[in-house]
Structures are given as C-alpha cells and as structure tokens.
Amino acid sequence: MTIDVEKAFRANPRSVLQFLQVPGQGCYIPAYQREYRWDKENVNRLFEDALHGLSLLPERKETISFLGTIIAIHDTQYVTVKPHFRNEMPRPVMTIIDGQQRISTFILLFVAIHNLLATCLPSVEKDDEEGSAWLLEEIQKMMAELRDCFILDKRSGKALNRYYPRLIRSFDDVWSSKPEARYSSAIARLVWDYLKHIENEETEAKQFRPSEPDGEKASTHKNVAAVFRHMNKRLRDLVQPQEEMPSLIEQALKAGFGEALFGFEVPSEVAERLRKDDETTTGKRFRLAFAAIIFAHYLQRRMAFTVVESEGEDDAFDMFEALNTTGEPLTAFETFRPRVIDAEGLEDYQSTPSHADMLRTEKYVDRYAKDASKLQRTTSELLVAFALAETGQKLGKKLNEQRRYLRAQYGDPDDKTRTEFRRGFVKRLGDVSDLMSTSWDPAETLNPSFGGLSNIDEPAKVAFEFLRGLKHTVTIPPLSRFFGAALSADPEERLQKSVAFADAIKASAAFTAIWRGAFGTTSGIDAVYRDVMLSGDGQAALAARPFSGNPSTKRKSALDIALYKRVLCDALEKAGISEKGSWSGKVETSLLAKHATEVAKFLLIASAHDVEPDLNNPGLVVSGRKGVHPTLTLDAWNLLSPMQVEHIAPQQGASTDWPADLYDERELFQTLGNLTLLHRDHNIVVSNHPQPKKMASYRALASRTPEAFEAAREEARKLGYDLPERSEAILAEATHARLLIPLVGCPSDWDGEFVRQRSRRLAEIAWDRLRPWLD
Predict the structure, then answer these.
(1) The pairing of beta strand 675-678 with beta strand 644-647
(2) How confident is the model at residue 179 (pLDDT cuts 50, 70, 90)?
(3) Which residues pair with 645 in a beta bridge?
(4) Is 94 helix (H, G, I), strand (E, B) or coil?
(5) Is the dihedral of CA 354, 360, 366, 368 positive or negative?
(6) With bands split at pLDDT 50, 70 and 90, how would you rate the model's confidence at 321?
(7) Contact, 402 vs 381, CB < 8 A?
(8) Whole-angstrom Cα distance, residue 158 to residue 178?
(9) Ramachandran category for residue 157: left, alpha or beta (phi over 0 → left; psi -120 to 50 → alpha)
(10) Is 54 in contact with 254 (CB distance < 8 Å)?
(11) What is the mean pLDDT of the chain?
C-alpha cells in the first residue's frame, strides 16, 4: 500500500502575520489543552527576542526570530470543534495541538498595540508639524492589519455578530453570526470586549481595561488581564533605553534600519522630528506611536513559526510527541542530550562516563520539569555559569546562542579522536550542576552538602552563605572549577583539593565584600570575575579552556588557588582599595544600606567577630581575645543573618532631634557606622524614636540581667517612653541582644563625625577578619 506522505502532513514556514491573516481562518483550542498560563516573564522573553532581532537589522537585514513549531489539525469537517454551527464556521479551521500559548500571546499583544495606537491617533490627527502625515498613514495601515489578526470579518450577520474572534476555545466559545454566539474563555472574551470598545465612538480612543469575571476560571481571566497590563507597560517603555541597548527610536534612526524593516529609510522629516527632545503630549505620543509601529512590524513580519498541518488528530499527536514540542521551547540542554548519546553510541551510552555525568545535570534541571518557565531559567543560568567556567566566555541567555555554544564546543559526534575531550566537557558541566544542585540553589538546598566533600571549614560555610544570599552567581564558575577538582580527586589528594575549594569560597567572599563595601554597587565586579576566568594573570587563567577568539592571546588553564587569590588582589590594587586605610576610608562614605544591604549585614557580622566594647571610646568596639564572641561560624550566621539591618539614626529622622549632618547630601545615615542588626520584632519596639528613647530601648535589649533590664525600662519611662501593649509584650519576651552592648554607652551626640568614626572602626575590624582569606 502506497502512503501519500504529503497528504498526511504539511510543514511550512509562516510569519505571525501570514498565519493569523489566512483569509477566513479561525483557530480553535480543544478542551484538553491547558488554560492560558504565560506570565510576565514569558512576555518579557518575547519582547527581548523581538528587541534583539530589531537591534540586528542594520547589520543583518534578513534577521528572523524563529518561534518553534505550531502543530495543528486542518479540520475541514469540524470534527474537533464542539459545539458548532456548521454553516457558520470559519473556513478553514485550524485546531491547535501545540502552540496555543504563543498564538494567544500574539493576539493579546496585537490587541494591546492596536489600543495604544488608537489612543495616540487623535493627537497625531491634530498634529500639523512635519512628519505627522506620514505617521498618521502608517498608524491607520497598522491598525487595520492588527485588527485583521485578532478579528475575522465574516461580512454577514447583524451588528457585531458579523465579527468572530480569530481564536476561540472548545465549549467556552461558539462562533456564530447570530445571537447564539458566545465568547467566555479568557482570550476570546478579551478580544470580544475590545471589539465592543473600539466600535463605540465614546471609548474607541480610550485605554482598554480587560474585565476579570468571577467564576470557575476566574484565575485564568485574572492572569490574562495581568499579562495584558504588563504588555501595555512594556509597550510604553519602548521609547526608553532597553537593557544593554539603546531605545528603539535610536535604533530606528541608524542607517539601514528602515530599509531592512520597511523597504525604505525613515523619511527625513520624521527622523528629524524624532531627534527633537519634544516633551509635549503631542511629541511623546508621536514617538510612542512610531515605536509601536516598528515593534509591530517586527512581530508580524520577522517572527515566524514552522506550521505543521495534519489531516487527523492521531497524526498530529504523533508529530507532537516526536517533535517534543511544549508551550516552552526545548532547553539548550534538552537539545544537547541527543548529541552526547549519538557521540557515545546508543547501545553503549549507559555504560559510559558521559551517561553518569549527564545524569548529574539531568538530576538538577529535572527538579523543575513541571514548571517550564523555571526549567528554562534554571537551565539558562546553569549554562551561563558553565560557559564562563569552561572557556571564560560570557554566554548570553538567548536560547539559540546557548544551543550553538554547546554544539560548537562539544564538537562533531562522529570524530572518535576527541572522545576523552568530549567526556571531560560533559564532566565539567556535571560539576557545575552538582555545585548548584547540592549547595547553591536556596529553594532546594537549605543546608549545603558540597557534594559530600568534607573539610569545608566554618568560615568557608559562612562565606558561601553570604555569596548565595547575595545571589552572586558570577562566583559559581571559579568555585565550580575547584569543586570539580575536589570531587574527582584520588583519596590521597581529596583533602588538599577540598581545602583549596574552601579557600576559593573564602577568597570570593572576601573580595566581594571588600569591593562592594567600598563601592556599594555591583559596578565592575562581574568583569573582574570574568577576567579571572579568561585572562588570569596574562599567562594562565582559571577557565578549563580559556578562549579569547584570538590565537595570539591564547592562555593556558591553571587550576591554582594562589593564582586565583593573586588576580583578585591585583584587582583590589587597581581599584585603589588594597590597603586597610584606603579601603576603610571608602567604607566611611559608602551608602551600603541604600545599595547593598546584604553586604552591610555581612560586614556587620564580620566586624562583630571576637570584639568587645571599647572602654576608652564608648559606642565603638575593639578586637578581643579569640573565642570571646565568634560570629563567623555557621551557628552564629544562622542566628544573625535573618536579622534586619537597622538604621540607628532612623531613615526618617531628618525632621527630628537627630543631628542634621547625618541627612545632608552625604547621606551618612546610610553608611556602615549608622547600622546594626536587630530581630524583626525588636525593630518594632525600637521604631524611629528620638535618640534618648532609642538608646534606652537598646540598653533594655542589651541587658544581661533582669535587674539591668528593669532599670533600663524604668529609665525609658522617665523619658516618657511608654510602649504600646504589643511592644511591651515583645520586649518582655526578647532575648539578650549581644550586638547592642557597645551602643549602650555611646555619646549623646550621634552625629556625622561619630558615625564616620564608627564606620572606619567597623571596616578596619572587618578587614582584619576578611582580608587574610585572600592571602
């Protein structure tokens, strides 16, 4: 029997516009499909894909963003459509087996862009400046195209019933040109409500707000409304500079952009108008409408699917399983796995080292298999870290870029001369996965096990908690290199390698705390870590295979803890903070509470390690004997890290009796010297009171004996400090606050000079605790 394969299914590339504007076509979501579940993150990724594509146009005029496969049944007999009125059905009907999340999102986005243009239209119509006539024509053309993407005009039926939403859902919705028409699913209802909105002269130019009806599917309607609102926000942000790239308007004014997108350059009068800094309402709407048109053009014409059509449901599901398509595209790791199996050979794969190492990565990423968005994010973060550890390269988060990286670096599966190299590649990917799985991921790893490594000392454990609490993921690549070496070391070398790993953790934490303590923000710190991996000291680098792309600057790989510490110290010297005096001077004015709360907390904990009150300088501390008050232990960290960073002179204290120089342009109230740590409940008691009352609260919380506690409370009452009932109850149950003891005898004038002095003292002690980790 001869099978006509071409009749069984057809696969054709289609732009979004080509797919949605097929004459007479309606798209149908069967009942077994999930409700709409895309969220802001999914929408952000779609925007980023489009904006990335737009940024490439001047150099790559044929840029296309591929969105995967749409699998659909070309249902000529309406077998899959329930309920339906046969003589009123669209022709053709495409029953969507896979791709409904993406199609639904484009429909929502086209409604949002149409509404944005509709709100700008009256302003452009009244605009008599040069360029407005061209823009008005483009708005009108684009609005017609957009409408045709989400509304099908049947050209029969009374009033609005001549129009059908392009996409409906089984049972919830019914296409009809008669009153029997019903559109109650979240997407179809929004489209139908918007149609009524634009067909009403009183509302057509106003902002559209989706309804959120109650009922069984209220959560879906709420999610759709939230996504639609987020789309509106993102669309209005198009005129602003985007992350790591200029605004869309700036890009559109580059030579070659208009020719690539429109087929002609942006008219000179329009370009001139866009370059003006016109902050009038008319000027803003002119720019916004122009940006929206550009964005819509790319969405419609440069974003594309492969549309696979089948004549029957069985064939469609066979293709669905074979292609392994989901609402989310395959991760780069999922597409990489078959390549490894191919290289090792299917029959032998399970007995190879690659199989065991791939299982390490699979075990990590598969914990998020039920959450497609989190699976994508987790895999992306893993591969970004791996690329930096492997070749010292900054890998982007784009899925295609990550796929290309794995494919190119792993090499040809048929090249049997590189088997050991490929196995090493997969092993190192497993090392990064193991570090993240057993230690880094806070959602799954409350108590890091470091892959079973022993000899990780207490300060290293505290340092690791600091780094992962800071979400300082750029430290994962260097740490994974030392971690992997320890995991695979022979028993006689494992102790030495484990100590090197612990030293790498402490060195990373010390460098990060010193850098951030001086500068507050993250500016420049990621570049230092990348430089460690790729360039090292100029001769050797920490990456497994440092790759600069230039053969003349090739460096060898050296997994050397001394090299790692030396390069980090060199970075401190270049930044002018390699000495205690210069660093503590920077910390004096660093606004840590404003820019780096977690860093401030770590420095407060480090500066509290084995200290005692300075009897000669009340309010300050001095180093004590070893063991007098250890805070750089895991037990102490678990006790102190949940505390809040408390402003001693309160943030809202500018209008109170606190010294005014704390609140001038230097903002000294945000610096280390004005900070301490308090339990959340204690913070309620202390509040934002004037200095005498606040210090009385500190004395009560720092009291060592019941008698001292009552004496402090009596002192507070004499000051007129009567606590509310809840605060009294909290204070009565409060445990001794050891960190507040040095503040008990602080000077009466908690002014800028004293705060700077305290900042320097705390910084000097923190330096003495942390800087040796880099030696």
Answers:
(1) antiparallel
(2) confident
(3) 677
(4) strand
(5) negative
(6) very low
(7) no
(8) 7
(9) left
(10) no
(11) 87
Please work out, in degrees rounded to the nearest 5, the angle formed at the alpha carbon of residue 720 by the alpha carbons of 719 and 723. Answer: 115
The rounded distance, in Å, linking the Cα atoms of 555 and 548 is 9
For 31-50, what is each residue's pLDDT tens digit? Answer: 656 789 899 999 999 999 99
Helix H, strand E, coil C: the string for 150-204 is HEEECCCCCHHHHEEECEEECCCEECCCCCCCEECCHHHHHHHHHHHHHCCCCCC
Cα–Cα distance measured from residue 253 to residue 391, given in angstroms and rounded to the nearest whole number: 36
Enclosing H/E stretch for 557 = strand 556-557
- Which of 604, 609, 466, 585 lies closest to 519, judged by CA? 585
The closest of 516, 688, 654, 492 to 590, measured between CA atoms, is 516
Q: Nearest 10 degrees: CA dihedral of 593, 599, 602, 608?
A: -50
Dist. CA 49–CA 43, nearest whole Å:
10
> Side chain identity at 69, as an amino acid letter?
T
CB count, 10 Å around CB of 714?
12
Report the pLDDT averaged over residues 129-156. Answer: 93
Rounded Cα distance, 534 and 522, in Å: 20
Q: Name beta bridge partners: 677.
A: 645
What is the distance between the alpha carbons of residues 513 and 510, in angstroms, rounded to a whole number?
5
Higher model confidence: residue 686 or residue 114?
Answer: 114
What 8-state DSSP symbol labels residue 723? P
Phi-psi region of 113 (alpha: psi -120 to 50; beta: other; left: phi over 0): alpha
**Are residues 227 and 38 in contact, defined by beta-carbon separation less than 8 angstroms?**
yes
* Closest CA relative to residue 150, chosen from 17, 6, 292: 17
Q: Which amino acid is at 202?
A: E
Instruction: Provide the 3-class DSSP secondary structure of residue 237.
Output: helix
Cβ(696)–Cβ(712) below 8 Å: yes
Contact 340, 33 (CB under 8 A): no
More confident position, 699 or 238? 238
Angle at 119 between CA 116 and CA 121, to 5 degrees: 105
**Across-strand partners of 72?**
96, 309
| Dist CA 398 CA 403 (whole Å) | 9
Decide the pairing of beta strands 303-310 and 9-15. Answer: antiparallel
Neighbours of 594 (CB within 10 A): 15
One-character DSSP codes across 588-618? HH--HHHH-HHHHHHHHHHHTTTEEE-TTST
Q: State both tokens at 229.
A: 């609102």
Contact partners, residue 54, CB within 8 Å, separation at least 6: 248, 251, 261, 294, 295, 298
pLDDT of residue 443: 57
- 3-class DSSP state of 217: coil
**Residues 565, 774 contacting (CB under 8 angstroms):** yes
Q: Residue 466 in contact with residue 508, Cβ under 8 Å?
A: no
User: How many other C-beta atoms lie within 10 A of the C-beta of residue 77?
Assistant: 9
In angstroms, rounded to a whole number, what is the distance separating the alpha carbons of residues 403 and 409?
10
Q: Show the tokens assigned to 318.
A: 């066979």
Indicate the DSSP class of residue 242.
Answer: B
